[in-house]
Amino acid sequence: MQKKARFLVRHGGSALVPRVMSAGGGHLKALKNRVVHLEAMLESRLPDQQLQRDLQGSQHSSDPIIPASPGVLADSGLHAAGEWPQEPTNLSQSGRAALFDGHTSDLVSSSLEWSFPPALTVSNTQFPPTDFLHDELDQLYLDRVHQSIPIINQRRYLSWSKSSSKAPSQKCLQNAMWALASLLSAQFREMIEPLYQKTKQTLESISIEGNDYNVNTELAQAWVLVVIFESMRTHHRQAWMSAGRAFRLVQAMRYHEIDRPTDKGGPSSPRNGDFIQVEERRRVFWMAYFLDHVISMRDDWPITLNEHVICTRLPALDSDFQSGNHELGLFLSEAMTQPTLKLGSSFNECLILATICGRTLLQIQQYQISKAYGDTLLDSTEQRRWLDSLLTTRLQALSQYYPSPIKAYDPLLLFANILGQVTVIYFCKAMMESMPASANPLQGDAEFSDYQNRALEASTTIIHLATTLCELPIAKIHPLMPIPLFSCAEFLYANMHTSESFQLRIQELFYIFRRLKNVNNHEKSYLDLLPKSCISKTTEMLNNSVQGSTPDQFIGS
After folding, report:
1. Is 362 exposed, middle or buried (0-12, 13-18, 19+ CB in 10 A)?
2. At a CB cut-off of 8 Å and minimum separation 6, what does 344 contact?
3. Alpha helices for 60-191 (secondary structure H)
4. How far apart are CA 492 and CA 506, in angstroms?
5. Which of 101, 179, 263, 383 has the most crowded Cβ, counting Cβ within 10 A?
6. Torsion angle of C-alpha atoms 255, 260, 264, 266, degrees rounded to 10
7. Where is this protein found (predicted)?
């Protein structure tokens, strides 16, 4: 069986990939000499043309092509079977960055520079990348991102992915997809920032041009992916600004009323496109809705996309969406109140739980406003009971009608289960904060304690589920996972002095944070994300995290 080895050489935007084919014989010395020769040329920064001539001369040398042993491959940075290494190899950073074939010049505008070591630059590069790299990035996205963010029809995307006449909005979407794929990859790290910058630059250009032709589903999908990317990079302020662009865009295209009974024939009308096109509109709208609620929950911000004016069906099952099987989802209110529970989709469960969070957030905001204005506080007992019952029903559906999140290895299902428990914490915390003064102090204290214990129990379940995350590769963890986990940490910290149980739980959670890899730097952990991801409610926790302290060191303070 043939073995292939690829050695990527980068200098001034040019790259060469000679193939080493299996054949009988030794000649390892010749291969080593060739590698040494290539490295020497790189170190001396030979001009591009000279480097190409030398490499071509080496290729046409009379020396026979010989197979390389695993040891030689490891020493020289070569990788057997033509596969990309899963972990960084001994290639230099600039060598690993040589993933283009000299055709990537407009990846970043002239005012933006790639952050490579001084020895090598990427000045004369062009875009798009090679067919091989193109296929790799597409497949990386579909394998590692789509399960968590199911807004793209794979077959439809691949039909135009390599087209030479893509619309600007399609280019934006593709670059955003590749930026996320690179972020979840070990071998394409050097491409993360250039792809992101190119995406943002094109998005801004489209906004300035004001061409309605480019205001379409692909543009909304690109903005949604940018929000997720910026959140993963802990650029939370920028992520919220980008989220606002995504929200207004789906509203402007009226994606919130795709399935209204009276069809006005606008851009969101089901008559404008086939089932897959209309379903993509639904999905990008609901993903924007989901981001709105999750980010608002994180910082107690007002909800932008109000559920009460939505007339768009929930996403269909992903299998139906991908195959084009014309099966429509329910409306949100139908899904939340259906009399009999049944298996749905992880995405829809996340949407329902996010809606419960939104209603809880609205209730506590109304309470605070009424209190500030000195209005008579209304008794919302019935509403609280209804929300409580609804939340309990959704948790029951997750436990009875879906596979075990620990065994399924479905990032969206595991996220839905953790989000469900965080919703319990959020609901209990809201009830504790808005609890009216009781005529019977003992009864009020008992109710407060019940909510507190229930939230503690939910945090225990989160810790149990989060333990599974430590055993998964980064690509199998939902990109927004830090948000619910850190929300749980904030609650435990706020109640740390209440009882020893809270102290034990936060120690366990911080132990998990130390084991979870930081997507931005695999040498670091979630503890390094904590100071950038939490809000000012827990200043002491942030300070201790920044200083590298563990919960054991500050619990007794």
Report:
1. middle
2. 317, 335, 397, 401
3. 70-76, 93-96, 131-144, 154-160, 168-183
4. 6
5. 179
6. 10
7. Nucleus
Reading the block at residue 474, the tokens are 């980064």
pTM: 0.75
pLDDT for 453 = 95
* Distance, CA of 380 to CA of 378 (rounded, Å): 6
Distance from CA of residue 350 to its chain's centroid?
15
Query: What separation in angstroms does the CA of 136 have from each of 19, 141, 199, 342, 426?
Result: 18, 9, 19, 38, 40
Report which secondary-structure segment, H or E, holds 240. helix 236-252
DSSP class of residue 16?
E
Q: Phi/psi at 10 (nearest 5 deg)? A: -120, 130
Determine contact, residues 503/496, Cβ cutoff 8 Å.
Answer: yes
Strand partners, 79: 6
Sequence-distant (≥ 6) Cβ neighbours of residue 56 within 8 angstroms: none
Instruction: Give dist(CA 13, CA 451) in Å, integer.
Output: 61
Write out the two tokens for 394. 């959704």
For 272-330, how does the pLDDT look when each residue is reduced to its tens digit (9 = 90+)?
A: 778 999 999 999 999 999 999 999 988 888 999 999 999 999 999 999 999 999 999 99
Tell me if 40 sits within 8 A of 11, measured CB to CB: no
User: Residue type for 460, please?
Assistant: T
Which pair of structure tokens corresponds to residue 476? Answer: 């199998």
Q: What are phi and psi of 19, to 5 degrees?
A: -105, 135
Coil vs helix vs strand at 394: helix
Helices assigned H by DSSP within 300-380:
318-323, 332-337, 346-373
Q: pLDDT tens-digit profile of 95-151? A: 333 333 333 333 333 333 333 333 323 333 345 567 888 999 999 999 999 999 999
